Each structure stands twice: as structure tokens, then as C-alpha cells.
Amino acid sequence: MAVSTLKDIVDRAFAERYGVPAINIVNDLTMEAVLAGAVEARSPVILQTSVKTVKSIGSAVLFAMWESMTAGIDVPVALHLDHCPDRAVITECLQRGWNSVLFDASTLPVEENQRQTIEVVAEARQYGAHVEGEIESIRGVEDGLGSDAESNRQTLEVSLRFLEATGVDVFAPAIGNAHGVYKREPVLDFQRVTDLVEAHPVPIALHGGSGLTDAQFHDLIARGCAKVNISTALKITYMKSNLSFLKEAEAIDKWDPPSLFAHVRADIVAMTRDLAQQFGSAGKA
Question: Required cofactors, per record (predicted)?
């Protein structure tokens, strides 16, 4: 167990049809709390970093935090670089020790996306790392990346050619999902997941997971969504937890940072534990 690979984690989840929480952390507190929540739930977890987080904290500091916090951990964990269009950042993170990367070339023509993804997969393999690929942008802006415009969905044939040519380990299709907070209940193309998995069995990454219903999660996980991305929900939990504590601190005029940290940590641990239960990964460690 302990530090694992993306492929080992998602391949088992795909075979047994449960979803693994893939949670975007923003600092040391959220990293430690997500890992602690996974340990409490006896669940594998994929800890994700955005390009924005890598650049703001620095890959060296982030990876040192990761190594320290996962030393002796007894549930499967992996460190993943989320939505990265910048090849230099991908190289930096792979060299530093990230287990996997999402090369996001979804704004490029499919042919160029495929050509560069083949190169990224070859580079990742040199480090024993794995690659998530996508050929359609997921609607919504997250950490400064993306667009609110719906991208054109590629045909099944185009998707299969991409999967076969690149050998990516995880695939992230657009199925009506979106990053950020849903303004209305999304209309999801469940059948598209089934069609992809039946034609080319590959673990599917479900992006835009914050805000979907239990029924939607369960249906998509049963069809092959083995990696379930959670970013907005962590940000909301983190910010609201801070806000509620600070309002109370102001009311009683008592200012104790360690108590603030403990309060926020408890909320993030609970969120992670609840996600593992919701996605069926609890007890799978």
C-alpha cells in the first residue's frame, strides 16, 4: 500500500466499479487533512495539485510536504498534476516525483493533441508515471484554466483512435459535466461513458464532480468512472469553515490560530471521509 501509482489505484476501482476521490488540495493543511480523511475511511485517494497551486507554492515545497505526510501511510495514495497544458510544468512535476499528470491539450486540434500526448506518455513512462488524457475541454473555469463555452464533442471513432494511439491510462470525456458550481442540474450523457468503456476498456475520469447527485455519481461509477475529481467542494468547505470560525472568533474576541486550523482540518477530514463513502471506495484500502 502506501504511495502507489495512479494506474494501480484506478485499475482496481474500474474492475470493481467504485470511484476513488481525486481531490485538489490548496495548501499544507488541506493536503494533510485529505490524507487523514482517506486513512480514516480506509480508502485510496488521489491527491491533486493544479498548475496554479504548483506555481504558487513551488514544486519542491509541495513534493517535500507530500513525502513527509505520506511517510508510513497505510492506504494507497497517488500525487496527480491536474489540467496542465504547459509541457514545462509537466516535465518539472514528473522530474520532482509526481505519480501522474493530466496533459490538457483539449484546446488544440485532436491530431496535434494526440501527437503531443504520445510524447507526454513516453516522457511519463521514463519516471514510472501515468497519464490522463482528454480531447474535449470540460466546461467551466478552474484555477484560471478553461472556458464557460461548451466544447464540441468528438465522435466515438475519434476518441477510440486517440486512446489506441496514445495509450493514456485514464480518459476524461465531456459528458455535460462542468467545473465549478452548477447553476442548474446538468444533463449528463451517461451512455457516452458506457460506449467508450465497452469499445475500449479504460478507467474514466469524471470531472466537475462537485454538485452531482448521489444517483448521478452511482450511475457513472457503475459505468466505469473510476476517478472522481473534486475541487470546488474542497474550496467551498475550506473557505466556509474558515469564515464560520472567524465570525465566532470575532464575536467572542478570541483569536487562536491553532484552533482555527483544527476546526478547518476537521471539516476537510469529514468531507474526504464522506466522499469515500459516497463513491464506494471506503474500506477498499
Answer: Zn(2+)
